[in-house]
Design brief:
Shape: rod-shaped
CATH architecture of the largest domain: Roll
Number of helices: 10
CATH class of the largest domain: Alpha Beta
Largest sheet: 2 strands, antiparallel
Distance between the termini: 29 Å
CATH superfamily of the largest domain: CBS-domain
Number of domains: 2
Strand content: 5-15%
Radius of gyration: 29 Å
Length: 194
């Protein structure tokens, strides 16, 4: 636009105005076809950090991991017997139970209700089986600093619906796919209103 005014001022005539505007429009259109983003956005695009409105990455970046954290989990300990675990299962609606060391508070693993269902209905095992024998020590973990896109990739990779959030080897809570999707939907509605 500034160039058009300069050319008009230099020539002192408005006769070139139509041709200058036409050349400017054609050059801007061709430039946009070959390089759709401005020079200010090129570095962000190269790093994959340009967050366009109403895209998954943008919406997930607006969500806060702390707000998504489900802290109402019943923690169990490795030395607990199966009968104690059954009593805990009866008091909660959860399917996942974090296992922590009773002395240090360190996160050791998880127990998923589906994995131990056969044990739950066998009362002969209640006093002989320990939580330590039932827990999954290799459960994938996430931390508060993790990007939610990476968390979603981990959900897809592990076919899991909930993952433990661990910070400095301490269990903070669970993050569930359902909670993320619920907040995602709410954030999408907010961004559509803008």
């Amino acid at each position: 636009m500034t160039g058009i005014f300069l050319i008009v001022e230099i020539t002192g005539s408005y006769q070139v105005l139509i041709s200058v505007v036409l050349v400017s429009m054609v050059s801007a259109t061709l430039s946009h076809l070959f390089e759709p983003f401005s020079i200010y956005h090129q570095e962000l695009i190269a790093q994959g950090e340009l967050l366009r409105p109403r895209t998954d990455r943008r919406i997930l970046s607006e969500l806060n991991m702390v707000e998504l954290l489900e802290e109402d989990c019943h923690v169990v300990h490795p030395e607990m017997r199966l009968k104690d675990l059954v009593a805990t299962v009866q008091r909660t609606h959860r399917n996942y139970f974090p296992v922590e060391d009773s002395k240090t508070g360190e996160f050791l693993g998880m127990i998923h209700l589906d994995d131990i269902r056969s044990y739950l209905f066998n009362p002969y095992l209640y006093n002989t089986v320990l939580v330590e024998e039932l827990m999954d020590r290799e459960v994938p973990r996430v931390s508060l600093e993790d990007d939610l896109m990476k968390v979603f990739e981990l959900f897809d990779k592990t076919h899991s619906w909930s993952l433990p959030v661990v910070q400095n080897r301490r269990f903070l809570g669970l993050i569930s796919k359902a909670t993320i999707l619920d907040h995602y939907r709410k954030e999408l509605m907010v961004q559509e209103e803008i």
